[in-house]
């Protein structure tokens, strides 16, 4: 249609028109935009513009989902998740694979034979579930290996022509082929795939595949480095393609870089490849650039490859533990792998002629235990060529997976991490800090600014002295390092000494616990709703029974601590004052408490407190004597605020301090670690141990710049100890509420574990307060119960697993019950799972606190030497090409398709993509209505604004409105969703409501005048106030065992016996009664079934 002339458009000019409004409405803007597009329809739009619009449209159409999570859900679901068996697979026939033309070749049958013999000697294999080996199929090989390699190796099967075999082997780097090599390589690959499949399916919890030939050098198109098929890579690929895993971590601790594994997953974010290897700036085999720290992956996989190059020989346990603490564990906590595969080469072990490192065999057990702290693990044999060291290291690895505590990795005091490992770790952090949230603890500097006084700067540089030239043929004889007889004797003497001082004995009972009814006597009679109440330990004991833990734990007998044991910590005056309580009247006791900070007294308080302290002493005796491997003390009253002469903060006797002094003075221990994770600083414990270097006190607590209880500057990071104890007091103070799993696990990896492993304690006592747990009314933090289990797991590598958990605070009985249960399950070896958070971010104030601790304590602890400034600018050039590695900004088609997410909603014409509301059905209907009615938005704006202002004053009337109004509080953890039980056994005791019963608002509590936050007993219909008022409804439950009560405030039902909310059709009549009296109408029926049956 032709455009009308100007005169035609003005033909109605004599008609009086309303002046156009100066207000531009959204609908008007949309119409104008469409008109403008129509006028320029003749011009073909840019393809890039159309693509950008489509992408914006699809992004806007993606629904925003807010998931309300029950913070106890994982803990509840863990009830059925108990420790599973460890799988074991090998094949004795693998001894047939050997070099037929060189008897001294290091990759020899004795490697595997010695491992099997040592594991059998220690009784480890009998504790495993043994599986038959099987060969990999061609279908399983082809995703990562070419058909040509398979065909070439197939020609060697049962081929006894040694000249042909050696000539063929010379075409490949460090390879020999025997007549049975191909068959055994297929069995090694298939057995590894099978073991991983069993782990992922849940048939077993973890496993080992002691197989050869090894695999991590086997590339797609050629064998390499003793390897033919890449066992670990094939198993990872199987887990991804056949089992649907999305996050796999491969830890390659073989001293040679596993270049083939890296190449196979270099652009795949579903696999993190983490390699620690001897490199020497490219001078060490396999002499490839791609083994350096700045090769971090490409395409979607950028940041998912970690290379930790070791640029000198002689690296020790301290160097490897530093890699774990500074690099691997932080990333692992963020990535949360569904499976950990270990390329378990032991050629970094002391004595290996190829690695020339000094890692002790026991250290491998500690490294394995840390990997198993929160994930399923499969260890697969790779290299290792000093047979005495190899067999010990492999046995320690298997033993750690069987879950007895690993032996200490090194004698105390531990050596410092080397300067070379510091350089490597800082380089790796620099290369990865833009890809991971966990590497935020080093300060930065600009390369253009001058260095300030006292500033320590790290210079990031890449050095390459290698040569990637591939020769046409490779040597097949005498192509390996050889040690002389004297060197071998010295190595054997060192290994024999380590073996003799390594205690591999196992305690009679893996985990013991102690609990006694005498500790229930201490209670606040004048304040029945006091948070430090007997129900705290009663609920834990009941949770243990519910989870079936009582049958799995060995209970030891409680006893009271003697006066002498108490007086080792407290003064005679303090003890005498407590003894007077039993003869003091309640009225006087209630008056006496005012002289102290947050304490109440009962005539039986000393009995309960002395039994609590005695329980811990009993547990120490059991653990040190190896009756118990570890222990759980369900005790109260708590103790860590109690000073030498003053009770404080609900604490009368300092249980843990009494126990630590007992361990030092009576049992002769020289190094005791106290870790206090109660949300309140253990000021009493700190004062008692402040000048003692035989007790290391570490506390993670809320501080709020001194405004949080106990409101003392002694809780800040500057309090480091005094005299002999200087440096042996470590405070990690949080300066805001809301700290959660990320912050606590970060404190562990950055502070707790480095110092604790360097200290090498003989005993670990945990002041296990759970008032930082989610839902606690005092702590107001967000630590989940399962996080406490993870933290317990991380401690198990210390002191040969001699860990004793002692209950301190925690005042949400449900939270502390789940938290202590998860800790106990961790000690028992049960799998501990966490909620997956794709973007865990540590709070800036937590990073500041942790950095302050590191700055303060790095002069005392050599393991804290990594806080060095890194360049702010990008000082690295793009990685250079490296043989065999495809470095591309575009990932492979296979990876791209696997990670592709299709959005079926499309913008069909490339034009209707520009307005914010055109895809909203509700907004389009409103616009259509306004246009149809001819509504003048300017004229009607006042009435609209009045309506809007009235609406803003209205309270939310629906659940959706309420959640929308309070969404930020939910995100901040100030509110959280709880999923009520659909059934509890106490519902059977309810009867139909009598007709004259009315649940009315405003009825006073039967014991006080409170009338707002009241509850109705659904058994006898009395009204009483809640726990946060005076706790009279709880007291009513204790007196009558009437478990179910209805809140008149929000119509929820609480079962005091089950310690949980309950929602069931049987409760409808009661809820509806209250709903009628509150709102004047019936409550909607919201249950699936239509009938209920009451007694």
Automatic annotation (TrEMBL):
List, for all copies, the residue spans of the domain called UBP-type. 982-1081
Q: What is this protein called?
A: UBP-type domain-containing protein
- Supply the CDD domains for this chain: HDAC10_HDAC6-dom1
Where is it mostly found? nucleus
**A GO molecular-function annotation:** zinc ion binding
Q: Where is the composition biased (Polar residues)?
A: 1-10, 921-944
Species lineage: Eukaryota, Metazoa, Ecdysozoa, Arthropoda, Hexapoda
Question: Where does it reside?
Answer: Nucleus
Enzymatic reactions: N(6)-acetyl-L-lysyl-[histone] + H2O = L-lysyl-[histone] + acetate
Membrane-crossing segments per the record: none
Biological process terms in GO annotation: epigenetic regulation of gene expression
Q: What is a single Pfam family found in this protein's UniProt entry?
A: zf-UBP
Query: Which residues are in coiled coils?
Result: none
Recorded hits in SUPFAM superfamilies, A to Z, give:
Arginase/deacetylase, RING/U-box
- Describe the family membership recorded for this protein in Swiss-Prot or TrEMBL: Belongs to the histone deacetylase family. HD type 2 subfamily.
